[in-house]
Design brief:
Layout lengths: L21 H16 L8 H25 L2 H24 L6 H19 L6 H11 L2 H10 L4 H26 L8 H7 L1 H20 L11 H13 L7 H27 L2
Length: 276
């Protein structure tokens, strides 16, 4: 097992600041790209400020978790500095760039970040509900980015957020089936369905939910297309089975590729719906 670098140790003064949760990085970056590119709007400094706020907030939460765990003064100092920088960039967005409509979403994101921090401190972040809370918090980058870009409220921003949530939450059930129930994958189809029932039920339900968003006018008519590849991937994993646990690194790259495909399809769908 690789030993974690201690805060303030020689040669590792900055390396410990970078979160090692590759899935979380994927959710954060894809959420930002989706939110900032789905709608046309103001450019300038706003996309950069949004990116700075979500990145410093994410790394600041990791620093706060390290500070709670180690009680080291260097970790506490970095946690205060990074979270202060995140708050400062959000304040510029709210008041200098006149994006006060972001305040409810920012407060919700801050509350979710705090809850996620407590869940992580209690060592419950690897449970299914702990992972879902983390996804909910990270995905607030979607409405923050989209509302910042347009400066106009509307149900379309909520629909985009829900679309992202439906996608990201599906990965929890899919990956848990592949990694934690890999022995069941060697059995017959019935055994695989019993082990992966959550994934088998979730993905078609998510497609129906997105169709409902489209029917309500909260999402473009063809928004469900963005979830179609990941739905097929999840159902195919149940159908195909397997004889060995998946390679985590390869699984991570596959999930990242699907996330980028999802973002591309969402952006394309929204731009087609709103015209040139």
């Amino acid at each position: 097992m690789q030993q974690a670098t201690k805060p303030g140790s020689a040669g590792g003064a900055l390396s410990w600041l970078i979160p090692r949760q590759h899935g979380a990085w994927s959710i954060l970056i894809v959420s930002y790209l989706t939110g900032v590119m789905a709608f046309e709007g103001r450019d300038g400094a706003i996309p950069g400020l949004v990116l700075a706020s979500v990145l410093t907030g994410f790394v600041g939460q990791h620093a706060a978790a390290t500070a709670l765990r180690t009680r080291r003064p260097s970790a506490v100092a970095w946690a205060v500095a990074l979270n202060g920088a995140a708050a400062g960039s959000v304040a510029v967005l709210l008041f200098v760039c006149d994006r006060r409509l972001l305040l409810p979403v920012v407060l919700a994101g801050a509350a979710l970040a705090l809850i996620s921090l407590l869940v992580q401190h209690a060592h419950r972040d690897r449970t299914a509900w702990g992972e879902l809370i983390g996804i909910l918090g990270l995905s607030t980058a979607i409405p923050i980015a989209s509302l910042s870009r347009t400066g106009e409220p509307g149900v379309a921003h909520l629909g985009l957020w829900l679309l992202g949530l439906l996608y990201f939450c599906g990965s929890v059930f899919h990956v848990r089936f592949l990694v934690r129930n890999w022995r069941a994958r060697r059995g017959p189809l019935g055994a695989r369905l019993r082990a992966g029932w959550a994934s088998a039920l979730y993905h078609p339900t998510a497609l129906l939910a997105v169709a409902g968003l489209s029917a309500l006018g909260w999402a473009p008519p063809w928004a469900a297309v963005a979830l179609l590849p990941v739905t097929l991937k999840g159902l195919w994993a149940l159908r195909r089975g397997g004889n060995a646990p998946p390679a985590i690194r390869r699984l991570g790259f596959i999930e990242l590729a699907h996330s980028l495909l999802f973002a591309s399809l969402v952006i394309l769908t929204y731009h087609m719906a709103h015209g040139p």
